[in-house]
Specification:
Elements (H helix, E strand, L loop, with lengths): L7 E3 L1 H4 L19 E4 L9 H13 L5 E3 L6 H6 L6 H14 L9 E6 L1 H12 L5 E7 L17 H12 L4 H4 L20 H6 L3 H4 L8 H8 L3 E7 L15 E2 L6 E2 L5 H4 L5 H6 L3 E6 L5 E3 H11 L17 H4 L12
Parallel strand pairs: 1-10, 2-3, 2-4, 4-5, 5-6, 6-9
Antiparallel strand pairs: 7-8
Helix pairs in contact: 2-13, 4-5, 5-10
């Protein structure tokens, strides 16, 4: 069964003041890259928690342009799309939206932050299109190696219960794989080989593809992941929503013995199916833990991540062109205020 994934933010520093600190009239020579955020299951782009995340990102790194991905401008429809939809089509839509965005399309690169299932979806974006290209990808509580079972839905969450009801009918049917989002990152394993099961490899609409688990490998996927500067994966220590929680680190967990095979001991890594080994060789692969249950994030944890991975780029020679885009028409900003599309 499935539990709705949401996150609880302890924004104590923001609660005392709704205004962001003023920045210098002259923008810094090197500005932070725009930050793109993809939310998790059961959430929507206009949720208060996501707005707080955007404000915190701008508080830590003034001048950050924040864009929260949405699959529909209607809030209810955007939430519904976290349960129902074809992930291949959803990622293609996001690829088109970001490539055409008046601010993001002008940036030399962007940073990306994925919460829960939004993490593997952003990785899918990197592998499949990556324009604008992602410099640092940070994921919290994601399911990069899939899930083996679901948690319970909340008692009154009928949307969640409807999704799980469909999942129970036939996970690998074309109907389910084209319509039920969590089914598309459900992973069945051959416990003898440790590789994906036959039905999973044959019918998975999403995960088997972006993990390059099928015989025919997509070289572009590996090349795009290897181009990242940092790929940072946070796993929650007490996570009981993501089963197994180590999926957030691409680890394989035997369903019978619970023995864990770390990423670096897996064929996926050693044969470098998606570029993780090459990225690791340049110190770009980062494994982190976060205290507490799934998506219960403190502002301190987020601040640390924002400072370390989303700050001004020390290698940039000059201020990015996107910062100079007219604020009124293209909604760019250099004064630390919230962008209008957040």
């Amino acid at each position: 069964m499935l539990a709705i994934i949401s996150f609880v933010l302890c924004i104590s520093n923001l609660a005392s003041s709704s205004a962001l600190p003023a920045t210098s009239p002259s923008p810094p020579k090197s500005s932070p890259l725009p930050l793109v955020v993809w939310h998790g299951l059961g959430d929507n782009y206009a949720a208060d928690g996501l707005t707080m995340v955007g404000k915190l990102a701008q508080k830590v790194n003034p001048g950050t342009y924040v864009h929260i991905i949405r699959l529909d401008e209607d809030v209810s429809a955007d939430r519904g799309a976290t349960f129902f939809g074809n992930l291949t089509e959803q990622i293609a839509q996001v690829c088109e939206d970001l490539a055409a965005h008046p601010v993001l399309s002008k940036a030399r690169a962007i940073n990306a932050l994925g919460f829960s299932q939004g993490g593997q979806f952003l990785r899918g974006y990197v592998e499949r299109c990556n324009s604008p290209s992602v410099q640092n990808l940070v994921t919290f509580g994601s399911q990069h190696n899939g899930i083996s079972r679901f948690q319970d839905c909340a008692a009154t969450d009928w949307l969640c219960k409807a999704a799980i009801g469909l999942l129970r009918t036939n996970t690998w049917s074309t109907f389910i794989q084209n319509r039920l989002v969590p089914a598309q990152y459900y992973r069945e394993v051959n416990e003898t080989t440790g590789l994906g099961g036959d039905q999973y490899l044959k019918y998975s609409n999403f995960l088997a593809d972006i993990n390059n688990e099928r015989a025919a490998k997509n070289k572009t996927y590996a090349a795009n992941i290897a181009k990242l500067r940092k790929f940072v994966m946070y796993v929650f220590e007490d996570d009981t929503t993501v089963i197994p929680k180590e999926s957030g680190w691409f680890a394989e967990v035997n369903a019978t013995t619970q023995a864990m095979t770390p990423l670096r001991n897996r064929t996926l890594y050693n044969e470098d199916w998606i570029g993780l080994k090459k990225l690791d060789e340049k110190d770009g692969l980062v494994f982190r833990t976060a205290p507490g249950p799934h998506m219960e994030l403190s502002d301190e944890m987020l601040e640390e991540a924002f400072k370390q991975y989303f700050g001004p780029d020390p290698e940039a020679d000059e201020m990015d062109d996107w910062v100079l885009v007219d604020q009124e028409h293209d909604r760019a900003h250099i004064d630390g205020s919230m962008p209008q599309d957040l």
